[in-house]
Amino acid sequence: MADTHDSNHDKQTGDRQGVSTMTDTADTQSAPPSAASSAKKRRTGRKSKVRRAAALLGALAVVGGMYSYATPSNAESNASANQTEMMKTGQGLYDKTCITCHGANLEGVKDRGPSLLGVGAAAVYFQVSTGRMPMTRQEAQTVRKPAKFGRDDTLALAAFIGQYGGPEIPEVSNEAIKNANLAEGGELFRLNCSSCHSFVGAGGALSSGKFAPSLKQASPVDIYAAMLTGPQNMPVFSPNQLTDEQKIDVIAYVKALQDTTDPGGANIGRTGPVPEGLVIWLGGISFLLICTVWIAGKS
């Protein structure tokens, strides 16, 4: 009986120890999930903060980009201010020298001057820089003469009138002329220009007291502006007729004509073999007749 009691006592003690061991094991196993959960929460919190910071930085970047896009730069602001000042100066020049013939609103005055609305800065630059405008009196055609305005005033007047539409002042670089196709330019010139300006750009007479001027003094910008605006009797050469590259080719050809020398002597207007033959026959025969008379008188 004592042995049985001791055995039962030992069994109960073992059972209590087993239960205590299982409880301790359960507590030990339940602790790590609690720590992992805390660590996970901390990681989630850090990620959330990073995402919020990234979103804030992205929003600031977008707002900054939109602001910089909408706000003009200092260079653009300065250019706009300079353009405004130029137009103000041009308006003053217009009111002093152009308003009588072209009207207070550029609408033109009957029997005095045409409307300037839509003519563009290129037309103003061509007419003013070559001295054709302002005119001193009404004539069949304006002629080239020393310009009344300097370059700055010419550009200011062109800016004022050009704001109402029309072609801008073209730019022609020496590099573009150097790389132009002279053969193509010569063919285009003979096809489109020689009937009025002659094959060598010497100019020619037209009807009603008008004439095509010589191109000897014309600058590349003058020629380009004339093709864009069609001054007086000259037609406008639109991109459908002559592309920008073809216009440069024509300009390069005219420049080559201007630079060509005459190694044979007097060029007699570069009008071809007919006047040259006429000079030879008239001059030569006249000289021979004089010599014949002189010899006959001496004999």
State the main characteristics.
two-stranded antiparallel sheet, Cytochrome Bc1 Complex, Chain D, domain 2, 64% helix, single chain, 299 residues
Q: What portion of the residues fall into strands of 2 or more residues?
A: under 5%
Shape: elongated
- What low-confidence regions span 5 or more consecutive residues with pLDDT below 50? 1-9, 11-32
Under the CATH scheme, which class of the domain at 173-262 and 271-294? Mainly Alpha
Distance between the termini: 193 Å
* Number of helices, counting only DSSP H or I runs of 4 residues or more: 11
| Main beta-sheet strand count, sense and barrel state | 2 strands, antiparallel
Helix content: 55-70%
Question: Which sequence of SSEs, written as H and E, runs from N to C?
Answer: HHHHHHHHEEHHH
Strand order of the largest sheet: 1-2
CATH superfamily membership of the domain at 173-262 and 271-294, which one?
Cytochrome c-like domain
- The oligomerization state is single chain
Radius of gyration: 46 Å
Q: From the 3D coordinates, which CATH architecture of the domain at 173-262 and 271-294 would you assign?
A: Orthogonal Bundle
CATH topology grouping of the domain at 173-262 and 271-294: Cytochrome Bc1 Complex, Chain D, domain 2
> Residue-averaged pLDDT, rounded?
83
Extended strand count: 2
Helix-strand makeup class: mainly alpha
Task: Provide an overview of this structure.
This protein has 299 residues and is an all-alpha fold. Among the domains are: 77-169, Orthogonal Bundle (Cytochrome Bc1 Complex, Chain D, domain 2); 173-262 and 271-294, Cytochrome Bc1 Complex, Chain D, domain 2, CATH 1.10.760.10. The chain contains eleven helices and two strands, in the order H-H-H-H-H-H-H-H-E-E-H-H-H. It has a two-stranded antiparallel ribbon. It is elongated, with a radius of gyration of 46 Å.
